[in-house]
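RECORD TYPE: inverse folding
INPUT: structure tokens
STRUCTURE:
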């Protein structure tokens, strides 16, 4: 299997990095980033181990899953032999709003 960070997820990581470094320092970012890398490695090994996000349960779609990595959520999709990382965000953020914004960006 192969992991691909989509453009939105790459932007999420950059935004998360800026926020954590500014608010908590570089060492906290390094620790957070290591947690994210470990979680992505686990996803690669066990792609179906993530849970279907509560916000997507009603959509009747099973290819989208999430894992919690420290204080962050990683939303991903499994398609054949590729794992697409769609979103990386703080667990306290409103997922419905984030998903809506992401969808609107794609539609434009």
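DESIGNED SEQUENCE:
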């Amino acid at each position: 299997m192969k992991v691909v960070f989509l453009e939105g997820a790459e932007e999420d990581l950059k935004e998360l990095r800026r926020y954590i470094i500014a608010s908590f320092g570089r060492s906290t970012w390094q620790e957070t980033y290591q947690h994210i890398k470990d979680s992505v490695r686990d996803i690669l090994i066990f792609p179906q181990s993530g849970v279907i996000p509560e916000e997507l349960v009603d959509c009747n779609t099973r290819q989208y899953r999430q894992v919690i990595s420290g204080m962050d959520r990683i939303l991903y999709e499994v398609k054949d032999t590729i794992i697409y990382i769609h979103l990386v965000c703080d667990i306290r953020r409103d997922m419905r709003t984030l998903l809506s914004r992401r969808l609107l960006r794609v539609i434009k």
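NOTES: DSSP finds three helices and four strands in the chain.
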